[in-house]
Amino acid sequence: MNMLQSPASSDRIHARYWLETSESPAKAAEIIAGEQSSGTFLALANETAELKERSGARVERLTVLDTVDHPSLPGRYAAGARFTRCELELSWPLGNIGTSLPNVLATVAGNLFELQCVSGLRITDLHLPSAFANVYPGPAFGITGTRALAGVAHGPLIGTILKPSVGMGPEQTAAEVQKLIAGSIDFIKDDELQADGPHCPFEDRVRAVMREVHAGADRLGRKVMVAFNLTGEIDEMKRRHDFVQAQGGTCVMVSLNSVGLSGLHELRRHSSLPIHAHRNGWGYLSRHPALGWDYRPWHKLWRLAGADHLHVNGLGNKFSEGDDQVRASVQAVTEPLWPHAPMHVMPVFSSGQTGLVAAATYAAAGIQDLIFAAGGGIFGHPAGVPAGVTALRQAWDAAVADVPLAQHAAARPELQQALGFW
Amino acid sequence: MNMLQSPASSDRIHARYWLETSESPAKAAEIIAGEQSSGTFLALANETAELKERSGARVERLTVLDTVDHPSLPGRYAAGARFTRCELELSWPLGNIGTSLPNVLATVAGNLFELQCVSGLRITDLHLPSAFANVYPGPAFGITGTRALAGVAHGPLIGTILKPSVGMGPEQTAAEVQKLIAGSIDFIKDDELQADGPHCPFEDRVRAVMREVHAGADRLGRKVMVAFNLTGEIDEMKRRHDFVQAQGGTCVMVSLNSVGLSGLHELRRHSSLPIHAHRNGWGYLSRHPALGWDYRPWHKLWRLAGADHLHVNGLGNKFSEGDDQVRASVQAVTEPLWPHAPMHVMPVFSSGQTGLVAAATYAAAGIQDLIFAAGGGIFGHPAGVPAGVTALRQAWDAAVADVPLAQHAAARPELQQALGFW
In chain B, what residues touch A74 (CB-CB under 8 Å)? Predict the structure, then answer.
């Protein structure tokens, strides 16, 4: 799917869709545009031409792709109906809702997926007027802020996720962190299943983990960045954030779909730490290609609302997304939001990552300003965690230098050994 | 889909799924249970039997339904794979996350939809330990509080949605409200596309509309309830709520998917007015039957987080959901959450509603404690809005008395005339 060619000078909200419809595409486009602005199922006398001109959504572009015999989504279609697929771009006047992300969501992705003439609908891009950048400052830390706090000036941040995901108590968690810091890792995160349960209370975990981070800092000369999952209600998140900060922590993590756009924005307003944004639940939003969300429009909302690190899955991942989808996500997340307000974030790669995909990942991202999180790719190293971390760094060095892994491994025993198990 | 037989005495979190998998169902169930608790893709030494016993998710039930040749969702399956469909129930110890709704979401609907062995996954029910009722008080007003504020002791609240959805300024909106109040309507709501845009600023709209509501109250002896859409960022929502309250308003409305669970809960904590909860975006969560959410588990989260009125679509609606789905939603929303903490909310029926579906709606709901919102069903009445509202009330009287509409209409000209255009 092509990216939306930014209507940079437009003061309207633009959204692009992949649409499949039982109607003629032109009629379906008008139905959707009407339903999502001034129209409704019935023609109303007070929807005047003037009102429609002022507030109606506009069909900016409609390109027919092909026609099929079977609908992608079940529904109540006429017998013998055929289904036309097209690319649709709509726009809305900013005056309808103003610069409000929650209301952008209701406008571009509200009731339209349920329309009877829609047999498939997926939002593929979103472009907002730059006035949004005045209201939503985007990531407070992004790439440079994260690098400064992590004490990692160059190269990817080599990271991992604490496992088992849930079940370890605070001290057991701290012991795992201690091993990882001893291995000179850059970044550690809670699993999204680990929050503030009675078995591993948030504050006890943060306290125990930060003890190790501070001890490690004496040796490493930098504080390993740990993303503590503070997902919860607004007051809880603020309290947990303040606790992390008071303990000298440098990152907090939140599950985006759990707290919502308003939740993230409120956390962003309160936070003085980078926000590691987890996309768990992404599957129910995206897994059927004829329904829901592409990553491109979806991630823009969260980026604008304040995410500093955004998950993009990983190449060769263990989930269902193919590499093409991951590459599209990486491309989206590394593009500037606006020329004057790029709002760069750090993409987070995870799920079955090893040094074997470093070169392809570097090719996809075009930058090293990313978090590369591996589990088995580190812990599986026969010489232990430090060698696992070193091997990942070596693989990235090879990728950046455009040297084949095997060649680079010749004088580097950690990488050499890693190639045997990755 | 059967409802989850409440494991009333369980102190675990239970979720039920419709699952389609390329694996053997037993293996797929274990993979999902592992991924969503202590396990991961690799066997880890520190995932001890003790830890697993304490924190692992448990497969409570697995019932194979059938096997098919083609996957419901695309993915990377082995050539020649067949796909088995089953009902799966999992449970988690409360100790993993504690009584936190945002973390329930990440646990029961996190990364599992993306698993490679999953060719279809839909969450069909959710049961939480009653400890949640101690932390989340649910709706503050629900049925009785709404009836008291609306001044409607019996029968459904007859309502409508302001149209055109967006484009009217404050005074034009107030003029529409004035007409509806003159017609003795019970309930009016903003469209979800109408928020706080520069063309119709929230405070100006509320002020103008409430002027009409107060004027109408002098005549009706009750304040018509108007749900003002305050969807926005947390601070904006609180400010707008306070303004509505200061103007004597009796209801606020919010787009659930826009503000998230944490956003709704924070609004609930702040609010001293009923919260009218709009589900726009429901289509992208539910439209493919092999993916995402049934209404039953989804609505429970929002109900617990504080929704007072919950949209359920309507019978014979203009969207894509069939009547069976609507009936299932109505059944879910009218059941108690727990025997000691039922947390009853008002279901909201809308989309192409007329008196013709009153009897079927009453049969589905079993109660008259609901909001029945019609647009064309009121405005289309040849004798005007008052007759349209009266005709809807008459249709509901007939439904409750179990009298055929035509018979009931004989001595009631408003209903008689309505039957000609509904």
Answer: 288-289
